C-alpha cells in the first residue's frame, strides 16, 4: 500500500511539473485553484484560493492539510480558512514575469499536488516615441510612418493603431502583430496640406498614446538626386550652373532649396577649399561667384523641399573659371650657401603664396631675375616649382621673383640679398610633440638684439628628395606650431635669425611628432672571436624604420647553462666586446633597440668560442718570461753595482755638525752645479781625496826612520783601495774618515798623526804628493815639489801649527818656519778643537 501511494505521488508530481509550462488553470477530481485574473499588474498583491472537492479520495476519512509547494521565492501568507474546503493565500507583491501556483494535499510529510494556476505579471504599454513619417513620391505615392514601442513586454499581446486626420476626416490603420510601422496609402493624406498623425498602443492592463504630430507630407520627402546639365563661364570669378530635378519630380517648382559644393582641382598654389552655396530657387540656372580665376572646379549639387531631408549629391561636373594675370606677392626665403672661386655666392630661393596672392590660373610658372644697377636684369630661373638654385655675383643687391601664366605676369616680389651669413644663432631650439601631425617649437633670442625676423625651416629626412617648407616669424615671437607632419617620421627643424644686414647661423634639431618602437632591430655581426671574448658590431637602422630617436642598445647573451648577462650601450654606439666568456662554449645573443616610444628585439644569433690553442699560450707565456727575465736582470744589476744603488736609495750626506774632516771630489762637488756659459770666473776645484791615518807614537818614531821608509814599511800605496784595506784596523781604532771606500779617486795627500794632533811629538810626518792625474791649482813644475813636514814652533807639541821643509838630512834640525797662509789648501784641513773626531 505504501509503495502504491509513493507511485501515485510521483505520477502526480511529474504531471504537475509538465503542466507548469502551460498557461491555463489546472484542476483535478480532488481540487481547483482560482485567481482573480491570470494577468496582473506587476508589483500588485494577488489572492489565490484552493477549493477541495468533497468526493476527493485523498481526503475522505483522513486527516490532511493544504500546502503551496515550489513557491519559496514568493512572499505570501496563509489566510484563515472560511471552511474546511477552501484554502487561500495572499501574495503581497507579485513581481515575477510568470509564476505557476500549486495546491497540494498533505498527509503528515507526504504531499500530493492536486491543482494549480499560472499567473503573469505585466505593465501597461509604455509611451510611444520617435514617430516619423516620410513621403515617398514613387508611384503610387505613400506615407511611411514608423515609431519606437519602448520596452515592449512579450508576456501579453499589445495592439497598435495609427491614426491620421486630414481636413477633419479621420483614418485608422492597424499594422500586423509585432510590426511598428505602417505605409499609409495615397487616400490617407494630401500633398501640400497638413496631416495630423499619432499612434495608440493597447494591452490587457492599459493603453498609451504618442504625441500628435502635425506635418506637411511634402516636407518629409527626400527628393531624387538632381541633374547638373551644364556649367559655363561667362564672367570672371563665376560659374553658371544649369540644373533640373529628376523627370518624375519636375512638377515641383516652388520652395526648392539647393546646395552647390565646389572643390578646386590641382590647386598647387592656393589651399584646397570648398565653396557651398545655399539658395532658394526654382529649377533652371544659378551663378556661383567669388571664385579663383583660371581655376578648375568640381561642382556637385543636392536639393530639398523646404525643410525636408537633403537628396543625395549629384554626379560631379568639372569646369574652369576665366584666367587672369597673377596678383599679390609671394613669401620668400633666400639662403646663401657660400662663395665660390669666381666671386659668386651659391644660393637657394624658396617661396610660397601669401594670403593675398592669387595665381588666377592652374598652370603658373615663376621667373627669378638678378637685378644689377642700373636696372639690369638677368634671368637665372624659369620653373614651375617653388624653389630655385643659382649663383649670385657679389655686386647683386636684390632679386625679383615674378609669377607668370597665359594671361600675364604679376608684379615682381623683391628679395634683398644679404651678404653676411656668419651672424649669431639663437641660444637654443626645443621641439615638443603637439599631436600626431604637429610639433611645438620654442627658441630663445640671440645675444644680438638687432633681429628683424626669424625663419623656421623644416624638411622630412625620410624622403629621397626632401621638400623644404618654411615660415616667417615675427621678431617678438618665440614659439610656433608646425603642422602637416607625418607621425613616426624624422624631420630636421632649423631656426634662422634674420638681421638687417645678414642672416644668422642655423640651430637645427631632429624631431618626431610621435615615436614608437623601431620597425626592426639591426642584426649583429661578429668581428674578432677569441676564447674569452667576442666582438660584435652592427649597422644603423634606416631612417624610415627607426620610428623615433634611438636612445639605447641592450645586448642579452647566455651560455648553455642559461646564465644570462646584459650589456647596456648608448644609442650612438655600434660596437661592443663581450668579455669574460668561457672557452669552447656556445652563446646565444639578442640585440634590443629602444626609443622613447618602445623597444624591439632582434633575431637570435649564436656563436661558439674557440678553445685555447698553442699560439695563444705562446702569446701569454713568452711576454711573461721576457718580463720576468728583464725584472731579474734589473734587480741583479742594481745589487751588483751597490754604489749606484746606495747612491739612489741611501746617499751618504756628511753632517758638518758631527764631522772633523772634509771630503771633496770633483764629480760629487760639481754634479749639482749648473753649467753657465756666461760665467767667466774660474770655478773653484776642490781636492779630490784626503786620507787621514792615525798611528801610535811608538810606530811613528821608532828608530827615527825617514818618512819614506815608514811609508814603505806600512805598505803605503797610492791606490785608494789598498789604503783602505791595509789601514782598516787603524781606521777603526782612531775613527779615521776614509773616503776611498766610497769613490775611485786617487788620494792627493795623506795626513799622518798619532792620537790628537795637538799632542803630537815634534817629529814631522810625511806629506807627499800623489800620482793622481787630477789637475792641481797651478801648472806643475818639471820636478815634483819638495815634501813637507809638520814642525813644532813651540815647546808644547800641542801648540804646533806650522809646516817646515822636510830635508833629506833631518838631523841637521834646520828648519824654515812657514805660515798657514803659504798653504791655503792645507789650511782648509785645520781641525779646531781639543780632540780629533772622525
UniProtKB/TrEMBL annotation:
UniProt-annotated location(s): Membrane
Domain Fibronectin type-III, residue spans: 127-223, 425-519, 521-612
Principal subcellular localisation of the protein: membrane
Annotated GO CC locations: plasma membrane
Compositional bias of kind Basic and acidic residues: 723-732
Record has Nucleotide-binding as a keyword: no
Disordered: annotated segments: 723-742, 763-802
Entry-linked PROSITE patterns: FN3
Keyword Transport tagged: no
Annotated family: Belongs to the type I cytokine receptor family. Type 2 subfamily.
One of the Pfam families matching this protein, by short name: fn3
One record GO biological process: definitive hemopoiesis
UniProt-listed InterPro entries: FN3_dom (IPR003961), FN3_sf (IPR036116), Ig-like_dom_sf (IPR036179), Ig-like_fold (IPR013783), IgC2-like_lig-bd (IPR010457), Type1_Cytokine_Rcpt_Type2 (IPR052672)
Extent of the signal sequence: 1-27
Name by which UniProt lists this protein: Fibronectin type-III domain-containing protein
Transmembrane segments: 617-639
Membrane topology annotation: Single-pass type I membrane protein
Keyword tags: Glycoprotein, Immunoglobulin domain, Membrane, Receptor, Repeat, Signal, Transmembrane, Transmembrane helix
GO molecular function, one term: molecular sequestering activity
